[in-house]
């Protein structure tokens, strides 16, 4: 990716022992010049979309033009996502650690001149604290980063994910070396069990117990055992796993190799959705580089342990994130789940014992091995140890990716780290756990974010998507949105899911039109329970969660739709009307120009009129009015 | 286990609706229930074909200590000491909704109307897309064609609400041997009308005049 890293490439042949790896690590670290300026340009998907490659190119040009040809040429390094996506493109000047945000190519010259030549920060590009208005120089002082505990994400944003030497210099594969030189497979399983690590993909099953079951199953039925990475992250608004795969692919790979060693597997699969081309590219590069160095393939690090891995691309079905559907998809058949009365650790891929873990779970494994299970289990809370990565999206100031210790109260995550909802209001609700999770109200803000507390509140951890809503979001509409998504993604095999989600949607559509009765609301709850109980897999089984939690916590809002034919949030189109406040209207004509129906008329500089009979309630007039003269009733 | 095996078969004891029953290891709850004369409705189940768990009408509630769950009896393996309830309120709730939704899905199926009536469901609140439809996509036809006949002339196409039973490229299948097994196993009468679309004109294909 970067020319500099290629130039630095060590002429390294295959590593034949763990000692070889340790020597390589030492030599990479020894060659590092700690004083050499490094300009980090975030190349996560968010910043890429905001044009960060142009910024990197402009910085390269600016260095050339500034003629900084002294002893040390500044290095430009492109890294994975730093998490603060709403502020991208991000540029960080190391070793000083100066954090620039929303950088444009035009800023490059000034950055080089001020920071590198004159040694002072560019004030206007620094982060401004939303509360105090103070400019903050370093990323670790920004509230968004200050309250995080980044252990899984620790290398992301620091290393070049396409350069294995950069990863090794940062301590990559040291855990694998430890495992192969000093630990038996049983030691590894027991370390993971002691750590208390639970699956990050949603259900939170204890990882160590899963591994131990696979070992037991393979003893009963000798033959191949498989380890699989679930990288089929499909929740709307979730991008945790993508970031890990893109930004630190070797962490996932190292975890997988260690897991394979622990359960006696020689073949692994990474199931990644095809919608993540950058993640697939980086994983492929990582696999190739690891193979070249002898960290993957036959006789890994001279230990006698053989393991290789293949990437299987998902074709975009949400249901393929479900374990049994994922297996059938890898096997080359249509991704449909099967009942799990016999567990995957006994009969998984091709009917063989299989350990399937989520991307983030695998990425936690090297940390636990390297720093010890006791260190790990002291992070978080007793039954949910470690950290969790969340994506914060929706009506929240700091849209992005964060990593926090388990058990952090919901409102600390949203208010302190996320910066709260933009504008004056507080958040109304948070959808945790993706479309199959639940919608928790502001009043439950002190709920600790851990597996068991979220389940008790009717939601779930899920894979870690958090969608924040404010008073302009209608819960009936939100429930409809998630149901529509799941109805579209249902594989159609079992009736409660294929027909039940459609039927639930029919009830909600009635409410959104101001139709239906309170008996219908009670019946919707019964239907939701039938879908929960009757569905084959977790897609249908958890699909009613958004409906049930919104009814549980926002019943009055449902009743307002049904009894008063009113949508309190002003969203449901059949129940609202737009009017123009003649007191506030200046007659500028902006709304009339934006109206696709042409139903706003009036003379220049005089209050305008809106014809409700023609209005389609698209909201264009509301968005275009600078004087708050368009009102929703 | 072969009949001549001298080893005793492992007998598993549990209860169905409070009555003690015995099953051999490897039986499902549905097999045990039917063997003992308990009625559990099914649509996608056939003794000769591997179960798939699609229709969910055979749900039962299983209790083990203070743990309780709704499972499908056609695939749930028997286990010592479990309590099975074939018509608890939770089971009834799943069944009545599935039947009401099926009435709207397959308005033309007499079989489904009769089954729904048995459970007190006579009309549906949900919209019917196709008034002529009888197929509820249980997949018995696909499975019999694959497992028993072995020709794979039909399969599922598309996904979710647009899922359907189809031949490859939706043209008459040359793999079809016109055996009619799919028609025989179809629980709703839907396959009867479709057979001609699946097999096409056999006389054209074989060159032996009428195949019948």
Q: Work out the count of structural domains of chain B.
A: 2
- Do you know the CATH topology of the largest domain in chain B? Ubiquitin-like (UB roll)
Q: What do we call the CATH homologous superfamily of the largest domain in chain A?
A: NADH-ubiquinone oxidoreductase 51kDa subunit
Strand runs of chain B, count? 7
CATH architecture of the largest domain in chain A: 3-Layer(aba) Sandwich
Main β-sheet of chain B, in a few words?
5 strands, mixed
The sequence of SSEs of chain B as H and E is EEHEEEHHHEEHHH
Which overall shape of chain B is indicated by the principal axes computed on the Cα atoms? globular
- CATH-derived topology of the largest domain in chain A: Rossmann fold
Keywords (chain A): 4Fe-4S, Iron, Iron-sulfur, Metal-binding, Oxidoreductase
Protein name (chain A): NADH-quinone oxidoreductase subunit F
GO molecular function (chain A): 4 iron, 4 sulfur cluster binding; FMN binding; metal ion binding; NADH dehydrogenase (ubiquinone) activity; oxidoreductase activity
Family (chain A): Belongs to the complex I 51 kDa subunit family.
In brief, what are we looking at here?
The complex is a heterodimer of chains A (633) and B (212). Chain A has 633 residues and is α/β, with parallel strands linked by helices.
Task: Kindly list the characteristics that best describe this protein.
heterodimer; A: 633 residues; alpha/beta; Glutaredoxin; Rossmann fold; Ubiquitin-like (UB roll); 5 domains; 5-stranded mixed beta sheet; 4-stranded mixed beta sheet; 27 helices; 21 strands; 40% helix; 14% strand; globular; disordered N terminus; B: 212 residues; alpha+beta; Alpha-Beta Plaits; 2 domains; two-stranded antiparallel sheet; 7 helices
